[in-house]
Design a protein that fits this description.
alpha/beta; Rossmann fold; four-stranded mixed sheet; 8 helices; 9 strands; globular; binds guanosine-5'-monophosphate
Length: about 210
């Protein structure tokens, strides 16, 4: 049977929805099963972040050069900084039949959907807007102004939620991790991801029915 291609899985969600935590747990719980795309960004490295682990940190000039040289699958601006998904790594893994997860914001997600119409788009949200606000305030690291700014971005992002395939309501982290895993597992059985397999079966059956493949 034909080896199916890997899935491009896009995980987006409001700032404070917990998508980063879901990703971390998913990679730990299923080692080797998922591959995370590492983005390039012009934003400043935060404390605890490492080059090549969270992001490839780029200067504005480097980032613009990558855009010019068509090195990104998609790129977008978020909160004044540029972010982009390097194309080569994603294509290589997908061709090897591996599932790649892109943790990116909404505008980039929609660009990916155009290039990979079969990409699986997941949107992570807390159970309610009030809960989202509580989580942002609860971090204790953000000023009122930053919290208000994040909520305003979330409000705009929420308009694009219907373009996603699945909603992951992140109440308990363990449940969300399992839900994301199950959604991706199930997608592998969807007929739309098994076109080659179906065509192969159809060809074999046609040959059998003609009696030329006993
Ligand atoms: P942060 O700066 O907090 O790490 O990320 C800010 C936002 O940028 C998050 O919503 C994150 O998912 C998104 N992001 C990270 N990498 C990329 C990327 O390569 N492309 C796009 N479009 N968004 C990204």
């Amino acid at each position: 049977m034909a080896v199916s291609k890997g899935l491009v899985v896009v995980l987006s969600g409001f700032s404070g929805a917990g998508k980063g935590t879901i990703m971390k747990h998913l990679l730990n719980k299923y080692p080797g099963r998922y591959h995370l795309s590492i983005s390039a960004t012009t934003r400043e490295k935060r404390q605890g972040e490492e080059e090549g682990r969270e992001y490839f940190f780029k200067t504005r000039e480097e980032f613009d050069r990558m855009v010019r040289d068509d090195e990104f699958l998609e790129h977008a601006t978020f909160n004044g900084n540029s972010y982009g998904t390097p194309k080569a790594y994603v294509k290589q893994l997908v061709d090897q039949g591996k599932d790649v997860i892109l943790e990116i914001e909404v505008n980039g997600a929609l660009q990916v959907k155009k290039i990979f119409p079969d990409a699986l788009l997941l949107f992570v949200t807390p159970p309610s807007a009030k809960e989202l606000k509580n989580r942002l305030v609860g971090r204790g690291t953000e000023t009122d102004q930053v919290v208000a700014q994040r909520l305003s971005i979330s409000s705009k992002e929420s308009l694009l939620m219907p373009s996603y395939d699945y909603l992951v309501v992140n109440d308990r982290i363990e449940d969300s991790v399992e839900r994301v895993h199950q959604i991706i597992e199930s997608a592998h059985y969807a007929t739309k991801y098994n076109g080659e397999r179906i065509a192969e079966l159809q060809e074999e059956l046609k040959a059998f029915s003609k009696g030329d493949n006993k």
